[in-house]
């Protein structure tokens, strides 16, 4: 058995003369392409389209924000109740919107406070309804289970 022939190596796949030519310190590697745009997959004659990235400029905060004279309701406690007692996911979203309302009330942004307050209230109402449905469904199923197991 010839040990120079290995099962893992394809015959003729690796030529030692190619390896020695690559290790010469004076030779530079060949250029991949003549395109200087930096895109290696451009075809000859293809026009290169470059786009600037989008820049998002946030609204500049006021130096001294003026709180609203008549702040909108925040529903923070209602959101905490629905978070803990009714529906965790909807309660969490309602709490986030109630905190948005609090921030908008403080910064004087009436439109954002109105929208966030309405969304927090709606999410809280839906969370209470979903929580009541789940509680009633759980009680009914438990009584049905008790009826089946007790003769």
From TrEMBL:
Top-level taxon of origin: Eukaryota
Segments passing through the bilayer: 77-101, 122-141
Cell location: Membrane
Pfam family, one: CD225
InterPro entries hit by this protein: CD225/Dispanin, CD225/Dispanin_fam
Keyword presence, Acetylation: no
UniProtKB keywords: Membrane, Transmembrane, Transmembrane helix
UniProt family annotation: Belongs to the CD225/Dispanin family.
Protein's name according to its UniProt entry: Tumor suppressor candidate 5
Lineage: Eukaryota, Metazoa, Chordata, Craniata, Vertebrata
